[in-house]
Amino acid sequence: MSIHNANIRAHAAFVVVAALLSLQGCNRAADAGPSEARNAEPAITHVASTSDIAAGRYLVRIGGCNDCHTPGFAMTNGASPAEADWLTGDSVGFSGPWGVSYPPNLRLSFQNMEEEQFLEMAHAGKGRPPMPWPSLVAMSDRDLKAIYAYIRSLGPKGEPAPAALSPGMTPDRPHIAFVPQMPAAPTK
User: How many folded domains does the chain comprise?
Assistant: First the structure.
């Protein structure tokens, strides 16, 4: 597969994941003002499941968290790796005007983060692309807590992801460019 096709597929996957995650916010009142809309509770406030861990696992699966945070997951269409190896971060970065970001190892990050810290981070919605921060902001506390419980239940595994790079810095490892590219001129 060419790099161009891989970039298009990665971008398409990101758009689909972001769209799916943002569905949480679609039930907000249409006539609410901007601040009311952000604070309004959706009609369905959480995923119902047998446990918080099961709900978190479901949300991680449908939210596409593995697409970026699990090496090889997107490239195998979810066929691998096994769940025991999920969410260990990746050394393939995403570059754009923000610099280069690398999907962190959530299993290590969550072992060093209290639930309240995760909720604050998710509600703030500040971080580098391509993480779909608006989707986390739109999620209910109950769903965020379920995600936290699930990731914590996996236990620590793997190594930390590379540190993000500032704009203008050249990455020393593979990265996917999130910058629109003009197609090459046809050859005659």
Answer: 1
User: Does 182 map to a domain?
Assistant: no
Give every CB contact of residue 183 below 8 A, 6+ residues apart in sequence: none
User: Does residue 183 belong to any structural domain of this protein?
Assistant: no
On whether residue 186 sits in a domain, the answer given is no
Average pLDDT, the chain: 84
Q: Is residue 187 domain-resident?
A: no
The two tokens of residue 133 are: 């921060």
Measured CA to CA, the distance from residue 28 to residue 61 in angstroms comes to 24
Q: Please write the tens of the pLDDT for every residue from 45-61.
A: 788 899 999 999 999 99
Residues in the chain, overall count: 188
Mapping DSSP onto H, E and C, the string for the chain reads CCHHHHHHHHHHHHHHHHHHHHHHHHHCCCCCCHHHHHHCCCCCCCCCCCCHHHHHHHHHHHHCHHHHHCCCCHHHCCCCCCHHHCCCCCCCEEEECCEEECCCCHHHHHHCCCHHHHHHHHHHCCCCCCCCHHHHHHCCHHHHHHHHHHHHHHCCCCCCCCCCECCCCCCCCCEEECCCCCCCCCCC
pTM of structure: 0.74
Domain extent at residue 161:
3-177
Tokens representing 85 are: 């190896």
